[in-house]
């Protein structure tokens, strides 16, 4: 299962925009395209931490507004864990 | 420059569990967390701080044109009935209205400007722009290609900053120039 599919499952409860979620891609913007409330972005960050067993620091969370940036953060933290 | 943020308290309590492990720690400074946990109504304090941070973010975002998600970079303090939000070397002044339905925070760079901010509340519907414009004698509310709102004077075309926030059932439009409804 790719990271984007896991991310799609994580995001599901926080968006009412099911069509945009079905069409999720690296270019999807969590706030603008999926209309996720900014107070729920932190839930996605916490869910990502739990799902992938990583810790997301503030500087990384700072960037997590798009699917692309979120995947980059997950990959970076997974690589740090492995290394 | 001005900003604003509105929190629908019923929606917030349904959709956010601020007691969730790690939640407060990701969004609030140590000092804010202590104030939240020792306040008589922690939930209201959570959303009050949150709306202060969001209103201040809107000013910073508009000035820098940079998007980011890092609420701890905004640290909130109360200053009598008003608030102060620190972002790096910038201070944003805020004032909040709290009732049973929502918390609404307005923000500006100077405390004098805060008193000049005019707010109009609407139901949060898709046609709020036309609702606003059909009630407005002197200004047209427009969004530019980046979604940034301005009030445009119908006579001389001058643009004035506006800020829009919406959440749940509520929508607020603020500017320095919105006319009173009975003008």
Automatic annotation (TrEMBL), chain A:
Residue stretches in coiled coil: none
Domain of life per record: Bacteria
PROSITE patterns the record matches: CARRIER
A Pfam family this chain is assigned to: PP-binding
Residues annotated as domain Carrier: 2-78
InterPro entries in the record: ACP-like_sf (IPR036736), PP-bd_ACP (IPR009081)
Name the UniProt record assigns to this protein: Acyl carrier protein
Organism the protein comes from: Pedobacter boryungensis
UniProtKB/TrEMBL annotation, chain B:
Protein name: 4-phosphopantetheinyl transferase family protein
Gene3D superfamilies on file: 4'-phosphopantetheinyl transferase domain
A matching Pfam family: ACPS
Keyword line: Transferase
Record domain 4'-phosphopantetheinyl transferase: where: 2-79
Membrane-spanning segments: none
Gene Ontology terms for molecular function: transferase activity
Keyword Ligase: no
Entry-linked SUPFAM superfamilies: 4'-phosphopantetheinyl transferase
Signal peptide bounds: none
